[in-house]
Structures are given as structure tokens and as C-alpha cells.
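Researcher: Sequence of Outer membrane protein follows. Predict its structure.
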Amino acid sequence: MVIKRSLYRRILNISIFTISLVMCLLGLFSSGFAQEQITLQEAIQQTLARNLQIKQAQFGYQLSEQDLRQAKSNLYPNLSFGVDNSYNYGLTFDQTSGQLIRGNDWTSSASARLSSSVVLFQGFQKVNQIRANKVQLAIDATEVDKVKNDLILSVVTNYLEAITNKELHEAALGQIKLSREQLRQDSIQFNVGNKTIADLAQAKNQVAMDDLNIMTSENAYELSLLALKQLMEVSPDTKFSIVKPDIDALMGDYAGITFEQVFADALNTQPGIKKAGQSKELALKNIDIAKGGYYPTISLSGGYGTNYSSQAKDLVTNLKAPFWDQFNDNKSFRGGISLEMPIFNNNRTKIAISKAKINYLQAENSESLEKRNLQKTIAQAILDLRSANKQYLTSQVAHQASQVAFEALRERYNVGMANSIELFTAQTNMNKAEFDVIRRKYEMVFRGKVIDYYTGNQITF
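Model: Prediction complete. C-alpha cells:
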């Protein structure tokens, strides 16, 4: 019996040393919390300033800007300049001198020209294309807003998840203190013969379980912080701490919300709804562009040119005409107007109009679907908020009850009226109830922030 007790004391000393080592490591981890604080609003601002998804959407907007610029430029006349020079040996007809050249001589010729043309009328297609490009530019601007909106919700999700895991870690640290104290008392009682080996083993098992909870919550906190850092586009080695919200002050803002109020605000603020309406407007402009194919095209063109030939001669002196004299004497101007009337183009215009109308109906249906989905989502979000509020209140009652039950069982355990299994079952239930309160609390906060997301209110606390 003496050998067994000596063996158990040795095991106990090893366990206490291990626990002390874990506490030192936890102390180092806890010191990491004393870093620069980042509020939710600051995290959102850094994400919006650095996130690559926003930059990607902005590139799309810039491309649409160039498309609009090109559509406007298509209204202007074009202008081109060209020169050429050629050499011919032997028989050739000289266009400049208007004569047939025979013999074994080289003939050189040169010309220069300046030309321009402009479309005066094309069924208003170019004007409608400008209007369509303006709508597309607005769509891309809305897409940038939508990406920002979605990122804000992602930041809120990860930020609150980090707060939840941090508080779960702090609760786990508090729980292991209680378990260690119980282990210390049971060790003393075991040494004097008042507790059994089973009681001591149960106490050690509870400490080990609490250690596992600490490590699990620590890892979850680090992972949620890493996800937040990735959204903010900062280095994983960046150290900062997060700020807990004032729960009572936050939840007072959602006391009187109604579905009609939230849905009306969401229709005016949600980028997805705005984008769907703009897509329908763009489809309508594309119908006008397609209809332009039935109209005639009227174009105006003009040009200036001159040329030179080594075989050209002066009509008076019959000598070869100088280069610059020829360029001056041979200049010519031209101008013209053309009308092109479409009669039959293999039904391309008719089919283009039909497809444009189908695209419009599709865009109209997409807008209706977007509104219906928003309606369902908001209705679900309001129910989730109310449910989360009730669950939080219920979890508080359950936690208080579990605390009372644990204290009562501990008193019975200390006087030998309850066994260790009953005690540590009550402690485990109390620990779970505390964890549940923390999760329900921040679930309630998150559901409230989802309502702010849909109503367009600033998301902060």
C-alpha cells in the first residue's frame, strides 16, 4: 500500500509539473493579447483599402470606361495619311503622264494622299451604343459596391468569430483554475486517505479535458484571426487584438424592427438589386441598337492626293517635270456621299432583335428573382435574430442553473455525500453552459449586424 501511494505521489508530481508548463505557455499566449487594438470599423476600412477582390472589380470598371470612350469616339470622322513609291523596269503604263512607256528604262513613281470619312446616320446605333456603355459603366460601378458590401459582411463574420473564440479561450482558462484547485484538494484528501484513487483520477481527467478545451479554443482563435488578416491583406505575423462589443447597447437598436421596414431599406441600398435593374436597362438599350439595323447608313467621305512620275514632261518645254512642280500640278480633291439601304441580310437583323428582346425578358425575370430572394433572406434574417435573442436569454438561465447545481454538488462531494463522477459531470455541464452562453451571445450580435448589412446602416460597434 505504501509503494502504491508513493507511485501515485510521483505521478501526481509529474502531472503538476506538466500543468505548470502548460500554464507558462498559456501565459505567453495571453501576453499576445496586449497588442494594438483593431476595432471592427478599422478592420473594415483596411479591408476596403487593400483587398485584391476590390481592385479586380475596379479594373472591370476601368475597362468599361475605355469602352465608353471608344463609343463616343466612333462619332468623330476618321483621318488617315499615306505615301508610296514604286520602281518599274521596261514596259509600263505611267498613270501620271498618261502614256505607255517602252524600252529598257527605269520608271519611278510616288504618291501621297490624305483621306477622311464619317458616318452621318446609322439608325441611331452609335448613339444607342453610347447609352448602353454608360449603363454598363454604372453596372460595373455597382459591382464594385457589391464586392465591398460582401467583404464587409465577411469581415464582420470573421471578426465576431475571433471575439467568440477569444472569449471561449478566456472561459477555458477560468475553468481550468477551478479544476486545478479541485485536483489540489483531492490530492490532499487522497494523501490522508479520505479520497480514493478513482476520485484522484477523475480530477486529473477533468484537468486534462480543460487543457484540451484551452488548446482547441486557442487554435480556433488563431485561425479566425488568420482569416481576418487575409481579408485585410496584412501579414500573418501582424499582431493586434480585437475589441468586444457592448451587447446591451447593440441589441437595443433592433427592438422595433419590422420586415416591411428592413425590406424597403434593402431595396434602396442593396447593390444586387440595383445591378439587376441596371442590367434590365442595358438589355433595353441593346434592343434599340439591334433595331438600328433596319435603317439605311449614310456616309460622307473626302480626300486629297497628288503624285509624281519620273517620265512626266513639261507640256511647254517637253523636258522632265521637276519633282515639286509635279506634286503641285498633280494634286486632286475628292468628296462623296453614300447611301446604303439594307434589303435582306439573311435575317440577321430580325434574329438580333428577337435575341435582344429575349435578353430583356431574362433580365426582367432576374430582377424579380433577385427581389424575391432578398425578401426570403430578410425574412429569415429577422427570424434568426429573434431566435438568437431568445436562445441567448435561455442559455443564460441554463448557465445560472448549472452553476447552482455544481455548487450544491461540490458541497455534497466535500462531505462525502456525492461521488467524483457526479461532481465532474456537473462541472462539465456548467462548462458547456458557459461556452453556450458565449456562442449564443455573439450569434445574436452577428444576426443583428446582418440586419444592418441589408438596411445599409454602418456596421460598427
